[in-house]
UniProtKB/TrEMBL annotation:
Family matches, as Pfam families: TetR_N
Entry keyword DNA-binding: yes
DNA-binding region extent: 34-53
Lineage, top ranks: Bacteria, Pseudomonadati, Pseudomonadota, Betaproteobacteria, Burkholderiales
Source organism per UniProt: Duganella levis
InterPro entries to which the protein is assigned, alphabetical: Homeodomain-like_sf (IPR009057), HTH-type_TetR-like_transc_reg (IPR050109), HTH_TetR (IPR001647), Tet_transcr_reg_TetR (IPR003012), Tet_transcr_reg_TetR-rel_C_sf (IPR036271)
Name of the protein described by the UniProt record: TetR family transcriptional regulator
């Protein structure tokens, strides 16, 4: 006797597929996102899913784009351009921290919709800051590279931390201790920041880096 397939209560749409994909990516990681798992999650057949998305890369990009769009839609009422950039940067930092797979999804789609959304939002704010057109692309590229690079590394560090037991303070203390023991002549700077590294706040340091870039953008010339 054939096994009954659970009846779908809602019509299958691209939006439902994307939401289910985000849920699977968060719970199982990128390797856990398969069309079979997605079909089970949505109580449908894989063929019905292929009607809405071409392949796994398309699905990853769409899931990433949905989260980037939500981040960029956070309200920033009548804020100065610098404050909008800070809000976008911190929103992406938190989004990638909560959904570490976003980093690899963005890397697979470097000039598709998620990146274009970020490029446009940052570019409008850099332009509003009064920067000369010749330098706008360089400034936005620097912001984009910093936001995605540091956010991705923070998410990777969090995953490594979980694998090492999840005690952030203990892990930082261990690294700081190792840095303090380095050769003073070969690593004078690294030794000097060992204690600071042990106590640092990831989000605060991230925003401090954004402010450094913004100060450079605001310089005349």
């Amino acid at each position: 006797m054939a096994k009954n397939t659970p009846r779908r209560e809602e019509a299958l749409t691209r939006e439902r597929i994307i939401e289910a994909s985000i849920s699977l990516l968060d719970s199982r990681g990128e390797s856990g996102l398969t069309f079979r798992a997605l079909a089970e999650e949505l109580s449908t057949g894989a063929g019905a899913i292929y009607w809405h998305v071409a392949n796994k890369n398309d699905l990853l990009t769409a899931a990433c784009d949905a989260l980037v769009a939500r981040t960029l839609n956070l309200p920033v009422a009548e804020a100065a351009p610098q404050d909008v950039i800070r809000a976008v940067a911190l929103g992406m930092f938190d989004a990638i921290d909560a959904h570490p797979w976003i980093g690899s999804a963005l890397a697979r789609a470097p000039w598709q919709s998620p990146i274009v959304r970020l490029l446009e939002r940052l570019g409008q704010q850099v332009r509003a800051m009064g920067m000369a057109p010749a330098g706008q692309f360089t400034a936005v590229s620097a912001l984009l590279s910093y936001i995605l690079g540091v956010s991705g590394q923070n998410a990777a560090n969090a995953q490594i931390g979980k694998e090492l037991g999840g005690d952030r303070d203990a892990i930082l203390a261990q690294v700081a201790g190792a840095w303090s023991a380095l050769d003073a002549d070969a690593y004078p700077f690294t030794r000097s920041i060992a204690a600071q590294f042990r106590e640092h706040d990831d989000r605060a340091d991230f925003l401090a880096g954004i402010d450094l870039i913004l100060r450079g953008i605001a310089l005349p010339g």
